[in-house]
């Protein structure tokens, strides 16, 4: 009697890891190291940054963790092998603007950052090039099992979307620059 092979799909925390690897990691100054399984409910994604200011900026804007049921996945920014903490001061839009610029200026997908006052609410727009982030992900809806997303949507999955009452809305350039 032959056994039918079971369909196996990657757990969602591997998608989060790949999103970080293929977005934040598209930068010569950033290296996303392999995800570590600390225990069966806790995973760690170490991200090595070779510039201290950039590391602090990235730690401030990056989503620090995601939960998938009882599984927690933490993204940890490192500089010279030491954990970098986010800037813990209350952030205003101007300082967040500078953090986004510092953290992403050498990223292949990043174009620029702007902010607007929208009916009294400050909104920060990190703007990304009109490109697709793609990686293998057991996606059965795709002929080649790839995850496919425009860069702005992929970054929206790994960046904080609100910091100290400032909304962050990743956006796409009107034209490739």
Structure notes:
- The chain has 177 residues and is an alpha+beta fold.
- The protein has one domain (12-172).
- Helix content is 22%, strand content 36%.
- It is built from 4 helices and 13 strands.
- The chain has helices at residues 12-22, 52-61, 93-104, 151-156, and strands at 30-32, 36-39, 42-49, 65-68, 71-79, 82-83, 110-118, 121-128, 132-136, 146-150, 162-163, 166-168, 171-172.
- The strands form 3 sheets. Strands 1, 2, 3, 4, 5 and 6 form a 6-stranded mixed beta sheet that branches. Strands 7, 8, 11, 12 and 13 form a 5-stranded mixed beta sheet that branches. The chain has a two-stranded antiparallel ribbon with strand order 9-10.
- β7 (110-118) and β8 form a beta hairpin.
- α2 crosses α3.
- The radius of gyration is 17 Å and the shape is globular.
- The termini are far apart.
Based on the model shown, name its key terms.
five-stranded mixed beta sheet; 177 residues; 36% strand; globular; 22% helix; six-stranded mixed beta sheet; alpha+beta; single chain
Number of strands: 13
Largest sheet: 6 strands, mixed
Structural class: alpha+beta
Proportion in helices: 10-25%
Span between N and C termini?
A: 59 Å
Query: How many helices does DSSP assign?
Result: 4
Instruction: Supply Rg.
Output: 17 Å
Which runs of at least 5 residues are low in confidence (pLDDT < 50)?
none
What is the domain total for the residues?
1
How does the overall form come out from the CA principal axes?
A: globular
Beta-strand percentage? 35-45%
Reading the helices and strands in chain order gives HEEEHEEEHEEEEHEEE
Q: What would the average pLDDT be, to the nearest integer? A: 92
